Amino acid sequence: MKKIALITGISGQDGAYLAKLLLSKNYTVVGADRRSARDDKWRLRKLGVENKIIIEDFELSEITQIIRIFNKYKISEVYNLAAQSFVGSSFLNPISTSDVTGLGVLRILEVIRNLKHKPKFYQASSSEMFGDVLETPQTIKTPFNPVSPYAISKLFAHYTTINYRKAYNLFTVSGICFNHESPLRGEDFITRKITTGLSKIKAGILDCLEVGNIDAKRDWGFAGDFVEAMYQMVQQKEPDDYVICTGVQHSIRELLTHAFETAGISDWEQYIESDPRFKRPAEVHALHGSYAKAKEKLGWEPKTSFKDMVVSMVNEDIKRLSNDLR
After folding, report:
1. Which of 282, 293, 286, 84 is nearest to 176 (CA)?
2. How much is the pLDDT for 280?
3. By Cβ atoms counted within 10 A, which residue in 2, 26, 34, 112 is the most buried?
4. Separation CA 144–CA 27 (nearest Å)
5. Which residue, among 208, 288, 276, 308, has the nearest Cα to 248 in the 3D structure?
6. Residue in 286, 97, 318 with CA at minimum distance from that of residue 204
7. Which residues face 83 on adjacent strands?
8. pLDDT value at residue 284
9. Per-residue pLDDT for 277 more than 90?
10. Helix, strand and coil in the chain, % to nearest 5
11. Which residue has the higher pLDDT, 245 or 36?
């Protein structure tokens, strides 16, 4: 019989890439999402998997919906990718962020704990938990120091995942994923904001792009590579936690340079304006991880370079806009 995998947040970037990967491995994929996201399936369509998965309404704040899903399907693996994932928004909506991103994981694990058939569980943890970093590079042993409601909520979920593994002997794993991007990234994230804005500048629709702190540094990888690590974690004999990253740090300045060069524009500074509205009450200035444990135990390492990822995002957004303007 086919394994059944439940992916929460199926309409997001990672959900779409993971769905495609699991389908290629002959899984039945049940995609769970908020009803408000049901019509936002462009990523699934882009990857050609929209009609190959089962979509179910799902709210992490409603335990009755979680129970319903687990009663309806004999699920083998759960990949929890759903969250209120915008760091800036978490300062404006800290309570709802905590309820969905933090307590939502507790609800799922409580349901799993009470099932006779207990599926394996993957939790999408975040490098934002390292926050105002206490050591570099960040590894699985680096102390956490979160500086946003989003990061605090993710940390609660992360420790809950560990606790249910230790207390109830559940197969629960977490991947502390550093920033990962793709042409499927949401436009609220800085990478897609830059590439979509750049496509409009090149087309003469936009004069400048307003951004926040361009000196911020991140360890950026490709989402398609990262979902392979998620899958590998769940296939291990023993559950454990891993840092998933590229091990290479880049600044937003570098991102802007590669992006504008790809579009044939050399002097990007004249098109960029700093807007204090995009600066957060507390900032994470630099993140830089080590994936040594994932390489040793999972045999995983990133395949896609930062520059190649940026080039693909720019080219895709230029193509999208060109098609829209026809």
Report:
1. 293
2. 58
3. 112
4. 35
5. 288
6. 318
7. none
8. 66
9. no
10. 45, 15, 35
11. 245
Report d(CA 16, CA 237) in Å as an integer.
26
Do the beta carbons of residue 4 and residue 74 sit within 8 Å? yes
Joined together, the tokens standing for residue 174 give 């977490």
What average pLDDT score do residues 273-286 get? 66
Q: How far is CA 66 from the centre of its chain?
A: 21
How far apart CA 165 and CA 118 sit, in angstroms, is 12
**Which residues does the annotation mark as catalytic?**
126, 128, 150
How far is residue 54's CA from residue 65's CA, in Å, rounded to a whole number?
A: 16
pLDDT in tens, 40-61: 789 999 999 999 999 998 899 9
| Span 216-240, average pLDDT | 97
Which is it for strands 172-177 and 120-126: parallel, antiparallel or unpaired? Answer: parallel
Distance CA 104, CA 99 (A): 6
Helices 223-235 and 13-24, axial angle in degrees (round to 10): 60
Amino acid at site 264: G
Return d(Cα 30, Cα 37) in angstroms, integer: 15
Backbone torsions φ then ψ of 124, nearest 5 degrees: -80, 95
Q: How many CB atoms lie within 10 A of CB 113?
A: 13
The Cα 60–Cα 62 span in angstroms is 6
Q: What's the CA gap between 190 and 195, in Å, rounded? A: 9
Pairing of strands 250-251, 180-181: unpaired
pTM summary value = 0.94
- Backbone torsions φ then ψ of 25, nearest 5 degrees: -105, 15
The one-letter amino acid code at 212 reads: G
Q: Whole-angstrom Cα distance, residue 262 to residue 95?
A: 41
Q: Side chain identity at 125, as an amino acid letter?
A: S
Spatial CA neighbour of 68 closest among 30, 123, 22: 30
Question: Is 266 a residue whose pLDDT tops 90?
Answer: no
